[in-house]
Amino acid sequence: MSKLYSSIIAKYFDKSHKTRPRDVIIGRPDLNTIRYPKNVIRNQKYSIITFIPLCLYEQFSVFLNLYFLIIGLTQVIPMFRVGYFSIYWTPLAFVVFVSMLREGYEDIKRAYRDKEINSQRYTLLTENGRTEEILSSEIEVSDVIIVKKNQRVPADVLILQTLDKSGTCFIRTDQLDGETDWKLRIATPMTQSLEDISILTSDKSQKVKIHSEPPCLNIHEFNGVISWKSDAPLSVENMLWSGTVIATGEVIGCVIYTGTDTRMVMNTNKPRYKFGLVDKEINRLTKLLFVASFVLSMLLVILKGVDGLWYRYFVRFLLIFSYMIPISLRVNLDLGKLAYSWFIQQDKNIPGSVVRTSTIPEELGRIGYILTDKTGTLTQNVMVFKRLKLGAVSYTIENKTKISNLLEEVYKKSGIAANESQESLVTSTSTKRSIGKNTEAMKVTEAIKALALCHNVTPVLNDSAEIMNEFLSTSDTPKTSVTSLNTTTGSDVLELLPVIAISYQASSSDEIAIVDWTEQIGLTLIHRSLKSMTLKLNSTEQLFDYEILQLFPFTPETKRMGIIVRDENTNEIIFYLKGADTVMQNLVQYNDWLQEESANMAREGLRTLVIAKKQLTQEKYQAFEQNITKARLQTINRSRCVREVIETLECDMELLGVTGVEDKLQLDVRQTLESLHNGGIKIWMLTGDKLETATCIAKSSKLIRRNDDIYIIQQVATREECLQELNIFKRKIGACLVITGDALQICLSFYEKDLMESIIESPSVVVCRCSPTQKAIVVDLLKKYRNKKVRVCAIGDGGNDVSMIQSAHVGIGIVGKEGKQASLAADFSINQFSYLTRLLFVHGRDCYKRTASLSQFIIHRGLLFCVIQAIFCSVFYFATTSIFPGYLLVGYITIFTMFPVFSLVLDKDVPAEIALLYPELYKELVKGRSLSFKTFFLWVFISVYQGSAIMYGALMLFDDDFIHIVSITFTALILTELLMVALTIRTWHTLMVVGEFLSFTCYVLSIVIFQSHFDIRFLESWSFIWRVVTITSISCLPLYILKYMQTKCKPPIHEKLTQYSTPK
């Protein structure tokens, strides 16, 4: 029996799949020795079993609700019962029910979204070699599946074969890393060469094993080995992560990780319940009120005498004074939050805005830090080529015609024509070098040719035209919905060009923008394979073929990329190199303009690349090839050996020019960031992009302002290096920090507190090469070390931003090119980054100010009654009896005062135009002065004064008519409340007037209806009226006078601006 239990526990609760490397047999899930997680997406907070207990726990973790639960339970005991049973239970049940209803509705919506994803269908390659349709949730580790174009990859999959002969495909990773550029992925050569891939699943004697690393967070690396007839290494280029989308063709792959083991799920945090700062502050105030009611009850018991059943009197006093903590506070605040959410969604100035978490709208008024994504949030990720700088000459996009003419002129002078032979081409090229080497046209031509060749761009054809289908049916290229031009020849492509438009794909938008610009001016990339490239001169339709001999990709360490090509027409071998100006200036021949011009373009917000070339002889290249091959065979320090060999070529390069590319910003981003800065908000940018790009965008968007110093921490490895960098940064007071994700992680491991305390006061921080998990970690650290009075807001638009958004106090998602995943997971959804100013400065201000006024006024309403009750008890020999009947108490906290008090949700202290015109007003909100202990004790003083004025005034003026004390005090109490609402309102609304009139009318009608409880003749007398007016005047008039004097002598800054400013 024990063995059976052990096997069940091992099968269902074993977590070894999280920590151990795994061996997967392709197409044989029956051979899995470990129970791997199901391939389901689950974003729900609750299940059917956990919904009620978890919701109740969350509701009663709020002190206010817990207090009234205890108070309600005491009413079950007859000796403690005071008033009606429903007075205590109905409001509590209503509050809890509405909150649970809202939580359940939001969780049901999440469940429907999960079901939609889990129900997507995929093609499975079965053991008998056939295919069948299965749901995404049914996919298991080692299954062989087919993923078609535009389908989401359902799990982490190893590419076995693509329909492209070269084994390549493009994917979109925007939901994983936030980058919208397509990325190239390659099938394993061992399986790509198979004519029939089904042999791996149908022939059980063919066991192909994949040894892979344990599940981890890193989306940029993968280590594995595929073993069949031999062993071959696997890397991240062979993997498709869950959540990515196939952009071209179809892919056959083997599932390696499922469900919670996938990279995407591991980089996503579970949604959590968010409790606002204002709610926490109100919670503290209610605890203080509880202490006050406890002390007051104990004091009255002591004065009455601690003997006999003193505890009974203590509990009854406690119940009587329970109105000091009104349950209506929770009801009104929740209804107010719904009203604020509705106002946001109905604002025509920010159309399409959605409030998905209606419990924290007032948090928008307390934001101190904004952590933003870059791609799709600050920028459109649309690159536009702006400038080509050749020494003293600058060419912009307006000079395209001139550049095209210069390009055509060079080829005409060189005698290049479509009908010339190979021999004349060689002659003309030598003539070109001797005659026109230093002319402007030659410089332009050489620079453009370098731009058209030195890149990693692949041209792609779409099959929207019938000619494409005809071409695919007659060629040996597999039919795919999109064909990469690495399987065709140059002449084949030329035949297609009149009817098929070429689009470009690459991992870098900069390269696409540059190659697209070379096409516009007359030199088009029409073909690219792993070993060759073809350019076309548009004016003559002539093709130029190049053999790719070597390719050196861009890396963050080298900050440059290079390519060695052989011109098929002239047999020349040319080494082209492009990279960051800081690196390239040491590799090119001496010049006096590169550094200055690069700095000028960077100040304009352009991303700069320096282009250079070097002519290689056949002998020199052969020697280089031997050395690079030998270096690549090294097993120890391979990267360093390869880098050293490449550096032998990277010297004395001929400088060709500098390019400037603009990453188009989102609409009004600069103005928005400037307003946020002026509002006292510190802005951090967390991006997966490289350091140079992130820094450039930070400058161009004005995230880092022109006069700000910048300190960069790029590479650290040891504790000593971390300490050195940290000490240098500390000495740069007021400097902005730019740091890589790896460097940040290392620094945090050694000096977390010192680093966070240093950078938390920085005007702006940029973290580049940042993974989704690191974004969430940064948010959590900022929440830990920040000023506790401010809140942290995260904003993004991609799936890689979900963890950050859910970790922040306030998560805002932008609906954009990267899909709706961030928008659906966020607390607030907007359509543009520029909407942020109105969301914070207008709605954030109104929500916070209104919540502060509403909560304090409701507390004042309860305190006012308790003061009257305390005086009544002390005068009448400490009787544990309520001064007012139960129905009057219920009416007091509901229909008699509810409408005018709740109408405070319509109040505003500053017009929207003034709030937007003067962002500095937002700084006042962050200090939290509208709801503080100072304002709380001010309202306590007002309540004590007014309660004393009403009760003692009634006792003094109605000494002979003591029997009418209830009518007198209650009427004065209602009038005082209505007048205090009017005193509190700063901007009148029609509904506020209606609420005041309606409440008073309800009170008058209640007198008519309940005549048995009132002396109508006495209430109609002038004696009653003038005395009530006198008492009400004594309680309210001094406060009106004090407010008037304060407004005239020391008005708040927002009132000055409202009075004297004219919005433009």
UniProtKB/TrEMBL annotation:
Subcellular location: Endomembrane system; Membrane
Name of the protein this chain belongs to: Phospholipid-transporting ATPase
Residues that coordinate or bind ATP: 373-375, 511, 554, 578, 607, 687-689, 769, 775, 800-801
GO cellular component, one term: plasma membrane
Main subcellular location: membrane
Family: Belongs to the cation transport ATPase (P-type) (TC 3.A.3) family. Type IV subfamily.
Residue intervals of the P-type ATPase A domain: 120-264
GO biological process: endocytosis; phospholipid translocation; retrograde vesicle-mediated transport, Golgi to endoplasmic reticulum
